[in-house]
Amino acid sequence: MDNIKLQKLTESISESDFGLSFKHTAYFNPRLRTTGGRYLLGSHDIEINPKQFEKFGETALIDIIKHELCHYHLHIQRKGYKHKDADFKKLSQKVGAPRFCAAIENYEERANYIYKCLGCGETFKRIRKVNTRKMVCGKCKGKLHLHKHIK
User: Fold this and answer.
1) Where is the catalytic site?
2) Any idea which residues carry the catalytic annotation?
């Protein structure tokens, strides 16, 4: 799917589920890493993470678009567009927009380092490096050492 098809899909979802037109731009942003999409308050554009579409397909993409359109339409109408606002919760429930999307990679897949406790032998996966002079094992308070650098 390209940006033109995404734009048309967003416009059609806006018309069918919200009964309102989407007058701005929706596009894929490959720089998004930890979020499914985002609504830009300044430009009113919607950015979508292309990895979500690649991994989970069109149904996940539609859910993300619905979620971002909730932000969009509420912000345009000067209502509560944040996740905590009652207007947002009510509208997202009405249109069936999920609160979260599935993670592209889980913590285990993102881990770069494996630490091992010298006391009990427990292993810990971490994304970032840990200061082994300060950090100790959570089980036995033993000393940690870098067992393996994965990536």
Assistant:
1) 68
2) 68
